[in-house]
Design brief:
Layout lengths: L1 H26 L3 H25 L4 H44 L7 H4 L5 H13 L1 H45 L1 H16 L1 H39 L4 H11 L5 H15 L3 H31 L3 H15 L3 H25 L1
Length: 351
């Protein structure tokens, strides 16, 4: 009888394994968006369940719709607006290069270029040669057109993919809100069956770490966007509020804010405001970008209850291994590992 059951049990196990592999293969292209939807859901679930849902008399479909609409207004519409601004900036750059192509370069290079040590004389000589020859200028600009077009195509693809991923995140998070109570109960039941009290503690630790990381990222982004907007207003940069908002969004990536304040400094210099351009560069380096280096680890460490070292290693390692979603996965994995290690050490000491 036991021999007859063994092949049947093996077949059942193989079927379960194949089913799991098939589900993972189907979800793999969307795993980043699904995980990010879970991050948003976990961070905002308490507000939704304790504040919004009771006021709607428990109508979860309406509540999920309102929460998703709020996320659309906060996340998707600004991204569309920023994409339109990038397209407008690309058109302005094309018009700027077209003027040089039609009118030619000035006869003398800017003093800050020709005055550079070691390479200044070479730049000045090349500038004079190109300025005297329309053919060389056309050839030079022609060499820049292909990389610029390729960069624009890549940037457009990134923006389009980001918008699609964000739309998928909003689609998934709607169902997480609507069925959140059942999903939450299922997660705790599964954690209890797999690890008992330890499983529940690990689930709570993972949620607390994710919320702490999100608060640190959003808090740092808000601080960077605010101080950036103040700097833009002081320097007289147009559309300072829009640029501050762009800094808020782009602070999620390491090189995001320098693209904004660096572009503002370039605009100020091109407008003849050299002093304000220098101020913008110094303000960007010393104030805007320094917030990310000092404030973010402190906020995340306080919110997640982890040391700054674990947070820094988790964020950096997570980004290298998992991409953007690794900002959340890295600290969570280290937090769970630290929790298991501390519990094991306590048990060893108790015995």
């Amino acid at each position: 009888m036991i021999e007859e059951q063994d092949p049947k049990r093996l077949a059942q196990m193989a079927l379960v394994v194949l089913l799991i592999i098939g589900c993972i293969a189907l979800l793999l292209p969307f795993i980043g968006a699904v995980l990010f939807a879970f991050v948003i859901w976990m961070c905002s679930w308490r507000f939704y369940a304790e504040k919004l849902l009771p006021r709607l008399a428990g109508r979860d479909t309406l509540g999920a719709s309102l929460m998703t609409l709020g996320l659309v207004l906060v996340m998707l519409l600004p991204m569309l607006f920023l994409a339109g601004s990038l397209a407008s900036g690309a058109n302005q750059l094309i018009d700027f290069l077209k003027d040089y192509l039609e009118q030619g370069l000035p006869s003398h290079a800017p003093s800050w270029l020709s005055g550079l040590p070691v390479v200044g004389s070479e730049i000045d000589a090349s500038w004079h040669r190109v300025a005297r020859s329309r053919a060389e200028l056309t050839a030079l600009l022609g060499q820049l057109v292909a990389p610029a077009r390729q960069f624009a195509l890549v940037l457009g693809g990134i923006v389009a993919n980001g918008l699609l991923q964000l739309a998928l995140v909003l689609f998934v998070v709607f169902f997480l809100y609507r069925d959140g109570t059942a999903i939450s109960q299922a997660l705790y039941v599964g954690a209890r069956k797999l690890g008992g009290e330890l499983g529940e503690d690990m689930l709570d630790k993972a949620r607390g770490t994710v919320v702490g990381v999100m608060l640190g990222i959003v808090g740092t982004a808000a601080a960077q966007g605010t101080v950036a907007m103040i700097g833009f207003l002081i320097a007289g940069v147009p559309t300072a509020m829009l640029l501050g908002f762009a800094t808020f969004f782009l602070s999620m990536i390491p090189i995001g804010p320098p693209l904004i304040w660096g572009g503002a400094a370039a605009w100020l210099y091109n407008d003849g405001q050299t002093g304000w351009a220098i101020f913008m560069v110094l303000y960007g380096l010393l104030v805007i970008s320094s917030i990310d280096n000092f404030v973010k680890p402190i906020l995340i460490a306080r919110g997640a209850g982890l040391s700054i070292l674990l947070i820094a290693l988790g964020v950096l390692g997570g980004v290298l291994v998992f991409g953007f979603i690794g900002i959340f996965l890295g600290p969570v994995l280290l937090a769970l590992g630290d929790m298991l290690l501390q519990r094991w050490l306590r048990e060893e000491l108790d015995t």
